[in-house]
Amino acid sequence: MAGRLRAPTGRYAGKSAAERQAERRRRFLxxxxxxxxxxxxxxxxxxxxxxxxxxxxxxxxxxxxxxxxDVLAALHLQVNDWAxxxxxxxxxxxxxxxxxxxxxxxxxxxxxxxxxDPRRIRITFVEIVGVxxxxxxxxxxxxxxxxxxxxxxxTQAAARGxxxxxxYRLAATAFIGSVNGLLHDWSAGWVDATLDEVVxxxxxxxxxxxxxxxxxxxxx
Length: 220
Known about the structure:
This protein is mostly helical. The chain is 69% helix and 0% strand. Helix 4 (68-94) packs across helix 6 (118-127) and helix 8 (169-187) packs antiparallel against helix 9 (195-210). The chain starts with 16 loop residues before the first helix and ends in a 10-residue tail after the last helix.
């Protein structure tokens, strides 16, 4: 199919065309979270199955998306946006706290969001991997946003004299890999620890990066 079908315009049942379109899109994404994030997974789902799960028709699917890959791409971004919103809110509440407390608040918010629904972890860390060059680029680009966030916070901590001044991009990239791997393994039941213990370990790792041996707070 070359492109999406044109969606109807005008008001119906008290809703505008834009409102109906947004509702259809939400229903498709909700259904995709159920199917892609659980059984049968992205690769085992068809357009017909997704449409049925959403309570919509395949014609309505093609009014919103070209392919199932488009749905997975949109869902992956949505899941990351939810987590980012949780982290930004936690940062706003913790901005005046000491570094260790700020880091704890950030990771508790992130871990709580992504592990609160196991389907979100599967979308972020499993289903998105290896689908296509396009989605691999999106996955890495979205991960780069998390790296940027850590670098920005580390730079601010250094400016406050709470962390060693340095270029944190390489360390942040490595650290994000640890975060993703540990949370995925924990959610899969491969790590014998509570979520609080996982968060505490991530905070210890981050503080070890920000405050290397031999450096003391307030040092230039």
